[in-house]
Amino acid sequence: MTMTVHVDIVSAEKEVFSGLAEMITAPAELGEVGITPRHAPFLSRLNPGEVRVKVSDEESHPFFITGGILEVQPHLVTILADTAIRAKDIDEAKALEAKARAEEALSDKSEKVDYADQQAQLAKAIMELKTLDRFRKRGG
Amino acid sequence: MAVGKEIRNKIGIIKNTQKITRAMEMVAASKMRRTKEKMQASRPYSKKMMQIIKHLAHANPEYKHPFLVQREVKRVGLIVISSDRGLCGGLNANLFRKAIAQLIQWEKSEIQVDVCTVGSKASLFFSGLKKLHLLGQAAKLDDTPHLQDIIGIIKIMLDAYCKKSIDELYLVSNEFVNTMTQSPTIEKLLPVCAVGSEQNLGGHWDYIYEPDAKEVLDHLLVRYIESIVYQGLVENNACEQAARMVAMKSASDNAGKLIKELQMIYNKARQAAITQEISEIVAGAAAV
């Protein structure tokens, strides 16, 4: 029998996922981490990116988060996301639009634009699209 | 008919008032449903956050964050969350009474108090008190408050705590028990202490931190305080709507009672006038 660990993913607005999983991958600040059951206690900030919860060999749930905190206890994994959505729900059109807007603002050097802000927005949009892409390739 | 014109006027006025209170009651009822949903939606986050903090209090980090260290109390900070608008029964008054009781205790033990307020009612009330230092206020938040509205005052308080100008931080707000009951509470935010340590994770252990303990803990603890204050704010919002609904309901009922009484008096006066007129006519006819 495979070992499982309890996973809770909550965003500031709602509980997104709660259940058992075999493995969780998350974009920790220093690089992607994969958490399996009985992992040592671990605490890290998360970058915007994809969190994947592997429930079984056949089934896994991708989520998109915009940053947050990951806590790991041997039998409990908690992800406190600033915002989290299931990859299925990412509105592709909206992501593309945001990307276009950010790029446009970045190329427009004449006006006073908050570059840091725009760059962050661009990163977020690209991340959303990437998650969506990967999700599609897997035949979702 | 000239009889009881004033009474009729009065009845008209009360009827108008009743219409207003009834409308407010219905508005508050529908708003309450929304604010309650919002409150319940953000509960899992703050619950999980509390859980992590609880775990953290059991860990033995090599880095002692100032938020986790107790120190001697000379000055405390207070964040008071109230509603922006009145007409919600004794909600704010009860809250302030509780706060004042605590303030008096602090004054007896010669502890000074710094206050930050959320909501116009609290800022109005606490700016009138002389012995307090009002550090900041946030008001005119609408029915769907956002975290950025209160981040300012949280930062003021956390900075004050880091600079050691306050040694403890408390949150005063209303807790939503159910629609009929809201209870004012005073909650200690800082220093973070492990309350209800039901499970001991056993042994001497610590987290693996990424990138390092200081950065992660700084981030986490600030988030923790923010989430508690935010939760307090949405909860207070739901309380406000619930209290307003109940207050307006009783106001409408009272208006109904008043109208009934006045109607009775009016009818009696009218009847008396008619009787008098008839008896005058009869007397006049008899005299002829």
Please give the CATH architecture of the largest domain in chain A. Sandwich
The fraction of residues in strands of chain A falls at 35-45%
pLDDT < 50 stretches of chain B: none
Helix content of chain A: 25-40%
Question: Uncertain spans of chain A, ≥5 residues at pLDDT below 50?
Answer: none
Structural shape of chain B: elongated
Total number of helices of chain B: 5
CATH architecture of chain B: 3-Layer(aba) Sandwich
Which structural category do the helix and sheet elements of chain A fall into? alpha+beta
SS class of chain B? alpha/beta
Strand numbers in spatial order across the main sheet of chain B: 3-2-1-4-5
Tell me the Rg of chain A in angstroms.
16 Å
Number of strands of chain A: 8
And the CATH topology of chain B? Pyruvate Kinase, Chain: A, domain 1
Strand content bin of chain B: 5-15%
What is the H/E order of chain A?
EEEEEEEEHH
Show the largest interface.
Answer: A-B, 22 and 27 residues
H-E string of chain B: HEHEHEHEEEH
In brief, what are we looking at here?
The complex is a heterodimer of chains A (140) and B (288). With 140 residues, chain A is α+β, with helices and mostly antiparallel strands.
Fill in the keyword field for this structure.
heterodimer, A: about 140 residues, alpha+beta, ATP Synthase, domain 1, Single alpha-helices involved in coiled-coils or other helix-helix interfaces, 2 domains, 8-stranded mixed sheet, about 30% helix, about 45% strand, elongated, B: about 290 residues, alpha/beta, Pyruvate Kinase, Chain: A, domain 1, 5-stranded mixed sheet, 5 helices, about 15% strand
Tell me about this structure.
The complex is a heterodimer of chains A (about 140) and B (about 290). The longest helix of chain A has 23 residues, at about 115-135. Chain A has about 140 residues and is an alpha+beta fold. Chain A is elongated and about 55 Å long. Chain A has helices at about 90-105, 115-135; strands at about 5-10, 15-20, 25-30, 30-35, 40-55, 60-75, 75-80, 85. Chain A has 2 helices and 8 strands, in the order E-E-E-E-E-E-E-E-H-H. Chain B has helices at about 5-60, 90-110, 120-125, 145-160, 215-285, and strands at about 75-80, 110-120, 135-140, 170-175, 180-190, 210. The longest helix of chain B is centred in the last third of the chain and has 75 residues, at about 215-285. In chain B, about 30% of the residues are buried. The interface of A and B includes residues 11, 15, 44, 69 and 73 of A.
